[in-house]
Amino acid sequence: MAFINEATGDIHFKILYIGSQSSGKTANIQSLYCETHADLSLKDHSTLLENMPRNTFFDFLPLSFGDVAGRNARMHLYTMPAHSLWPTVNINLMLGVDGIVNVIDSRVRFLDKNETQIQYVKKLIDSLQIDFNSIPFVYQFNHSDAPDALTYTNLTKNFFLKEEDCFAAIAHQGIGVMQSFHRITNKIIQKFV
Ligand SMILES: Nc1nc2c(ncn2[C@@H]2O[C@H](COP(=O)(O)OP(=O)(O)O)[C@@H](O)[C@H]2O)c(=O)[nH]1
Ligand SMILES: [Mg+2]
Hints:
By secondary structure, the protein is of the alpha/beta class.
């Protein structure tokens, strides 16, 4: 649910990156950090990432997004831990969510972990009495460079997804990251205005 800061007039949207352990959630946030800090772009990515603030339990990246409905918009990106060791962290991450990027691990040996993760998220959403179908979703098929990665067509069919919401990615190289981010922001804004 978008949050309007009446003092500044800014509008804040919350985007959550979910996915199984090592699916590439942090790699998405790191790539977006590097892409959006053009002032630092002459440095290589590893140098750039030394400047990125780190959290212990989840990743957080605020990004300015320009004008939405006449207000200065900011996108707040979070990653959700793939485990539920700290349930209150996950509850707080989910509360007020405006859109979700599901980072799916394309590697065939990790396929069942994706399913476990989405079932966990569905239960969490249900427990908060949020309508799952009301949340804009984007699906990112990461690790698409792995030798055992399932194909884009295969994954789209396997999860019964619309192609317009699906992106193949190699997140640590920035491939498919910005496209996924733009799609989720478009869906959020379309719903909002
Ligand atoms: N080969 C390859 N490695 C990736 C890809 N995405 C992430 N990684 C690497 O996989 C590891 C786990 O990624 P990370 O983003 O930490 O996963 P998280 O647990 O979902 O946050 C890291 O070493 C990343 O650099 C990808 O698409 N291809
Ligand atoms: Mg991570």
